[in-house]
Design a protein that fits this description.
- This protein folds into 2 domains: 30 residues, no CATH class; 238 residues, 3-Layer(aba) Sandwich (Rossmann fold), CATH 3.40.50.
- It has 8 helices and 10 strands.
- Helix content is 39%, strand content 16%.
- Helix 1 runs parallel beside helix 2, helix 1 packs across helix 8 and helix 3 packs parallel to helix 4.
- The strands form 2 sheets. It has a 7-stranded parallel β-sheet, with helices on both faces. A 3-stranded antiparallel β-sheet has the order 1-2-3, with no helix packed on it.
- Strand 7, helix 4 and strand 8 form a beta-alpha-beta unit.
- It is an alpha/beta fold.
Length: 282
């Protein structure tokens, strides 16, 4: 009979110590799940990669910024001894998505969890003044990119009769706000897709979770305002916004529920925000 628990050494490795301090037993780690995170070079995607790596998942990180991807891969491997593979491609281009997924080494091919995180807002203009280039960028990344990756990975989950897809929508996918037109439309589409994916994949035992964050301070506003730091900072004046880690924790909680539990939808906002249009600033 073993004595008290001594420590956790690595994910799923436990050390036990006998009362006479003469014997230590190491329990080998369980088979780790593989998780693919799109848009992992910053914000929520990076926070998810860090949290899941810390908890023993095998990680696939994707993004367009190669140097950031490589740095994150090195960090996760050195800090958590994680098995990490990075894929550098543009999610808005179907052929690049296809080639990237097909290039995965055998040990990374069976993806247990897909986090469709890649997305952005471009511009904040009324419909009559919106830029066609901004609209196309949001549709290509927020909607078509999510569909491209899901179409490549979901069939394998269905064939194995297991898996979990997490889609990053927004409170803008629940309600609309002035000048948010196309961004709101893409996030409403993600919300709707999450519901229909859940119906389509139900018979195959694949879980689907929709995450709808409110105000989160990441690079989101800086990207929306195309590098205008002052305008981006003004978004959060008088409010303590959510952090990327807050959202990553919610995603990890949803993914780590028992097999019979599916968390269908999570709306998460700062305490100071009630919905897309109602915020208290102090």
């Amino acid at each position: 009979m073993y004595g008290s628990l001594l420590t956790v050494v690595k994910p799923y490795k436990l050390l036990y110590l006998l009362k006479d301090n003469t014997f230590v037993k190491i329990i080998k780690p369980k088979t780790l799940k593989t998780i693919l995170i799109t848009g992992a070079t910053s914000g929520i995607g990076e926070a998810c990669a860090t949290l899941f790596a810390k908890n023993g998942y095998q990680i696939i990180i994707t993004g367009r910024r190669k140097e950031r991807l490589e740095n994150l891969e090195k960090l996760l491997h050195s800090k958590y001894n994680s098995s990490v593979h990075s894929l550098n491609f543009d999610i808005a281009k179907h052929e690049e998505c296809k080639k990237a997924i097909e290039s995965l080494p055998d040990e990374f091919k069976n993806i247990d969890v897909l986090i469709n995180n890649a997305g952005l807002a471009a511009g904040l203009s009324p419909i009559q003044e919106g830029l066609l280039s901004d609209w196309e960028t949001m549709i290509d990344i927020n909607l078509k990119g999510l569909l491209y990756i899901t179409r490549l990975i979901a069939p394998k989950m269905a064939a194995r009769k297991s898996g979990h897809i997490v889609n990053l929508s927004s409170v803008a996918g629940k309600e609309n706000y002035a000048n948010g037109n196309v961004y709101c439309a893409t996030k409403h589409a993600v919300d709707s897709l999450s519901q229909t994916m859940r119906i389509d994949l139900l018979q195959y035992g694949v879980k689907v979770t929709n995450i709808a964050p409110g105000m989160v301070e990441t690079e989101f506003s800086l990207v929306r305002f195309k590098g205008d730091e002052n305008r981006a900072k003004n978004v959060y004046i008088g409010v303590t916004p959510l952090t990327a880690h807050d959202i990553a924790e919610a995603i990890f909680w949803a993914v780590s529920r028992p097999d019979h539990v599916n968390i269908s939808d999570i709306v998460i906002t700062p305490k100071a925000q009630a919905n897309s249009t109602t915020t208290i600033r102090r």
